[in-house]
Every structure is written in structure tokens, then in C-alpha cells.
Write a structure and sequence with these properties.
single chain; 192 residues; alpha/beta; Dihydrofolate Reductase, subunit A; eight-stranded mixed sheet
Length: 192
């Protein structure tokens, strides 16, 4: 059985919205896109992407990635090659298939059953990147096996978050951690 691993850049206040660029996601009036770049810490992400058996993506992240990775600059090839060639499973209530980005398909049926079926398949683990709405649903259905969080020392004052505000207690245990020279804490958690 393969795992679902959520890999997220987070600001210290828990925001996951638009870490990569100023115009990445301005919904809700968010004005601090690109907050992650001063802190780096992409080394572990490259390894996770390279080892992933595929990706679980929400609609907005899928559309953002499908618009970027097929034409990524040569300097991003180590990320672009696995992003373009590995399977991408997309959760969406609005997209219809077939999807244009290479090796992309829509999840069929209810999310919990579709993801549980993917986890039962053979192969390497599934990686979730971005996709805040999808991550909240996966957490609520108990489908996340690990969180790999890169917490940057910055407060952005609001924005989209990955953790549901539903009052549920979900104990975790620390599997691994490191602190980068820029002050980013990289922590990996699993269920306690």
C-alpha cells in the first residue's frame, strides 16, 4: 500500500497560499504571493518529486502547474521532467476530461473512495503539492499518511490554509526535522 504525502510550504502563521510567485493566487485579495522564495529549501522537494509515484492535485493547482511545467525553463528541468511525465490525479467538481497535460486524469467518484483505491495500487507514494482545498478534504477523510511541512519564518497575515477548522483533534508524531540556514523548519509528521 502506498502513502499519501502532503508536501507544503507554510508561513509561520499557517498560510499556504501563493508561496511561489506574486500572481500565483491572488484570490481573496491575497497580496503577499512569493513569500517563500527568500527562504529556499527546495532540495528535499526535488527528492520527493523524483521519488513520487504520482501526484494528487486539486483543480486550481492542476491548472497552475499545467500552464507552467510543460514549458518550464531549462533551469527547472530537474523538477519539470517528473512533473510532466508522472501520473497526475486531479480532484475537481468542475473540470471534464480528458485533461490536456500529459499523464493527467480526473479522479472518478467520491474523493474518499477514489483516493483509497489509488493508495491500494502498487507503486511509489503519491505526493500532494499545494491544493489547499483538496488537502483539507484528505485530512477530514483520514487519507493523509505524512505531512512534510516547510515552515518559513514569515507571517503573511492570512490566506489559504491546509488544516481544517473543524474542531477535530488529530495527534501527530514527528518523524524527522531540520532547520535550514535561512531559518526554515522542515518537519515530517505522521499520525500518532
Amino acid at each position: 500500500m502506498r502513502k499519501v504525502i502532503v508536501n507544503e510550504f507554510l508561513a509561520l502563521d499557517g498560510t499556504a497560499q501563493a508561496p511561489g510567485g506574486a500572481d500565483e493566487d491572488t484570490s481573496g485579495g491575497f497580496q503577499h504571493g512569493g513569500w517563500h522564495w527568500p527562504y529556499g529549501a527546495e532540495d528535499g522537494v526535488e527528492k520527493l518529486i523524483g521519488e513520487a509515484g504520482g501526484f494528487l492535485l486539486g483543480r486550481r493547482t492542476y491548472e497552475l502547474f499545467a500552464g507552467y511545467w510543460p514549458n518550464a525553463p531549462e533551469t527547472a528541468r530537474e523538477f519539470a521532467e517528473p512533473m510532466n511525465t508522472k501520473p497526475k490525479h486531479v480532484a475537481s467538481r468542475t473540470l471534464t476530461g480528458p485533461l490536456e497535460w500529459q499523464n493527467s486524469s480526473l479522479l472518478q467518484g467520491p474523493l474518499p473512495e477514489a483516493v483509497a483505491a489509488l493508495k491500494e495500487e502498487s507503486g511509489s507514494d503519491l505526493l500532494v503539492i499545494g491544493s489547499t482545498v483538496l488537502v483539507q478534504s484528505l485530512i477530514q477523510h483520514g487519507l493523509v499518511d505524512e505531512f512534510r511541512l516547510m515552515v518559513d519564518p514569515v507571517l503573511v497575515g492570512g490566506g489559504k490554509r491546509i488544516f481544517p477548522d473543524d474542531g477535530a483533534l488529530r495527534p501527530l508524531r514527528l518523524l524527522d526535522h531540520e532547520v535550514t540556514t535561512t531559518g526554515t523548519i522542515i518537519a515530517t509528521y505522521a499520525h500518532a
